[in-house]
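A reminder from the course coordinator: this example appears on the midterm review sheet, so study it carefully.

Given structure:
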């Protein structure tokens, strides 16, 4: 569990970056980590959603990251289940689940 905390802490730091390259790589890391951990990722999910939600809302929801972030959120919900979908919806109001 300690390694998971180290990994998610590093991702959390990167996902808030204003640098698009760093954000893109961190977004990919979020998806891959959720894939690898499944439901074990849920306790770490909420802390990563705020910066992801901000990217969705850039330019009125038409920002360059909106679709990619939504794709990753759907992937997380598919991998981690309904509980993850509820957390995502609570933190990213524009999210529409796909289950």
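Designed residues:
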């Amino acid at each position: 569990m300690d390694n998971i905390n180290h990994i998610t802490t590093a991702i959390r730091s990167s996902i808030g970056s204003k640098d698009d390259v760093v954000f893109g790589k961190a977004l990919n890391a979020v998806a891959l980590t959720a894939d690898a951990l499944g439901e074990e990722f849920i306790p770490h999910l909420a802390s990563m959603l705020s910066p992801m939600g901000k990217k969705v809302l850039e330019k009125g929801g038409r920002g360059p990251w909106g679709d990619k972030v939504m794709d990753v959120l759907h992937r997380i919900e598919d991998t981690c289940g309904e509980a993850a979908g509820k957390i995502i919806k609570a933190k990213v109001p524009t999210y529409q689940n796909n289950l």
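The mean pLDDT is 88. Helices lie at 2-15, 20-37, 42-57, 66-80, 82-91.
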